[in-house]
Write a structure and sequence with these properties.
Keywords: Lyase, Metal-binding
Number of helices: 11
Family: Belongs to the HMG-CoA lyase family.
EC number: 4.1.3.4
Structural class: alpha/beta
Distance between the termini: 41 Å
Helix content: 40-55%
Strand content: 15-25%
Protein name: hydroxymethylglutaryl-CoA lyase
Bound molecules: 3-hydroxy-3-methylglutaryl-coenzyme A, magnesium ion
Radius of gyration: 17 Å
Pathway: Metabolic intermediate metabolism; (S)-3-hydroxy-3-methylglutaryl-CoA degradation; acetoacetate from (S)-3-hydroxy-3-methylglutaryl-CoA: step 1/1
Low-confidence stretches: none
Largest sheet: 8 strands, parallel
Number of strands: 12
Length: about 280
Amino acid sequence: KHLGRCEIFEVGPRDGLQNEARDIPVAEKIALVNRLSAAGFSRIECASFVSPKWVPQMAGSKEVLAGIERRSGVRYAALTPNMRGYTDAVAAGADEIAVFASASEGFSRHNINASIEESIERFAPILEEARHIDLPVRGYVSCVVECPYDGAVAPADVARIADKLFSMGCYEVSLGDTIGAGTPDTIARMLLAVRDVVPVGRLAGHFHDTGGRALDNIDASLSLGVRVFDAAVGGLGGCPYAPGASGNVATEAVAAHLARLGYDTGLDEGEIAQASQMARAMRG
Ligand code: HMG
Ligand code: MG
């Protein structure tokens, strides 16, 4: 069966490692990114220019971007919460950046110390500057079904923020089930609302596997036309400002699942297995 192309956006070195308790040396992070570069990804998120007081594990992001071996055809991505982060990411040579908003006020406040509206205002000059230098900007929406502070999130709220980020110039909007509370049903209802305002080809699914339903949620997304999924090698991760959030869905599990269904990911499963082993060994 050939169902066409599906892409995994690797977020392990960022979303995976940001939440690990052990102080991971920069050299280990560089080694992980270099391994992942050989596996066939076209985008790897490996840096985050956030406040080191908020997320100490990402403090070495500049050194990571300086130390990796850049493979042609791979874009090395970084998170940027504000202008300061944007300037640092560009200076460090990030190939693309990401702004991150939330569909719920509680998470927005806890994660970036701003209301949703304030966060969008912060992102506007970033998108403006990035446009001038042709730097691709990805947009995240967190808590697309449930918020650890505010409870259930309405699909219309997710659609509103996704629409906003896309209209501002984000080339893709990644929809985050930050605490893995989604089910195929709630994910589908959310996607139906978002699909009305952002072309489905510009959406990505970002599923944490807390509830053990990430692969089911990927299936629900596939049936509605989503073809990009974020995943972290070794199932690393979580979010320090989302209590209870466990790891991202594991890249090796998603790659095997997509291959079984008949999708072409262009990934080398042997390389991913080795990267996964390395990632697991990096945990505290
Ligand atoms: P704040 O405390 O409101 O900001 O934090 P501030 O402007 O008052 O700055 C506080 C201090 O941070 C100052 O230093 C600034 O200079 C410094 P001080 O004067 O106290 O020494 N600072 C910075 N340092 C480095 N880089 C920067 C930067 N900005 C300020 N860019 C802020 C506001 C946004 C900075 C903070 O809340 C923050 O960094 N938050 C990031 C939290 C985070 O990274 N969360 C995880 C990523 S999101 C996620 O994982 C979800 C996702 O995976 C999708 C999903 O699963 O849903 C994407
Ligand atoms: Mg995440």
